[in-house]
Design goal:
Elements (H helix, E strand, L loop, with lengths): L2 H6 L3 H16 L9 H16 L7 H11 L1
Length: about 70
């Protein structure tokens, strides 16, 4: 029986547990996780945009309050 077939026999809560366990294993060694080239490019572009902006933004407390009031 394949792993996929066995996985399909699990209940939904068991499947969630397996996925959580898998993710925990992957996250334990983040340096082994490949990062796509475009992620670095996007990060660099956003950093350039942030550095060139004279607007420092708003304090998180103010932003959180504004969002809560909009709900």
């Amino acid at each position: 029986m394949s792993i996929h077939s066995e996985f399909n026999l699990l209940s939904l809560s068991e499947k969630v547990r397996v996925v959580q366990d898998l993710w925990d294993e992957i996250a334990a060694e983040p340096e082994r996780l490949p990062i796509p080239e475009w992620h670095g490019s996007e990060l660099a572009a956003r950093e350039r945009e942030w550095a060139s902006s004279p607007d420092p933004g708003q304090d998180w407390v103010i932003v959180k309050e504004r969002i809560a009031n909009e709900l």
